[in-house]
Structure of ATP-binding protein:
Amino acid sequence: MSLNNFQYDALMRAYNEKQLNHKHEQDEHIRQAYEMIPRLQEIDGEIASLSLKKARALLLPSPKDDFDLSAAIGELSEERTALLQIHGFTPDYLELKYDCPFCKDTGYVDNQKCSCFKKAAVDLLYTQSNIREILETENFENFSFEYYPQDITNPATGLSALETAQDAVDKAWDFIDHFGEHPCGLFFYGDTGVGKTYLSHCIAKELIDRAYFVLYFSSFDLFDLLAKNTFQKDAAASDVAGFIYDCDLLIIDDLGTELTNNFVASQLFCCINERIMNHKSTIISTNLAMEDFLETYSERIFSRISSNYTMLKLIGNDIRIQKKLLGGK
């Protein structure tokens, strides 16, 4: 997945700025601590002198000059930690901090792009911000069961719309709480306006807040991007298309609203199958009934979804219409 030079340089400048900010923060911590506890500066000077003395002993071996450097530094480090704590500082107060402990704010781990780099790239190229504003309002904190009546029931389960929504929310939280342990898929289906997209947004918000790599697409945007990548060799589309298979969670919303053809069907199967094989989680929502879904796509796609995803049907009245009738509440 390649970024153009300008985009790559922008990301690396951001990493350099993080490193500089944390170095300035460390320098200020050292200044404050030295000013309050002069012995700390003496300890750091003694450690530097011991390291130099050990290096000379290694270059010019002499039994009388040899000593255990680790033990000597260990004693001084213990004294430094004790002094910091006595004066109300944390033991790591003088250490250099990092936003990402894995790559130490370099963007790379063992010459491979760190997960934080991938997230930063997505923020630049396509970004979770395409739903970030929506997630400020569409989240579990604002989720309400009041729009799901008890007098509408699912004949197949005997559960009311309210009970069905409560079960879907329970399963959504289970999906979130065990996300890192058990990659899987959720398939929301049901009539227009019963909360499928809203529930997907709620899940996305929770996982983004837990620092997972989430990508959200309407089905139209997803297949439009894949078409640009395939037929137009669009550079930006190519960068984002690669993330479709790598992100922790892919959300495909309103599947069935796109113009379906052989290309769409093949790309959908490839996407679903690759993510299953790579143990990556996916959420799909659709307004299509199961028989219409099977007719629109292939039996092969339906089989992969039905055997690997938790199927959750939401029922009830159109929530958007209910909100309008209630004055937008």
Q: What stands out?
A: The beta strands are 108-109, 112-113, 185-189, 214-218, 249-255, 281-286, 309-313. The CA atoms of residues 142 and 170 lie 16 Å apart. DSSP finds 13 helices and seven strands in the chain. The longest helix spans residues 5-36.
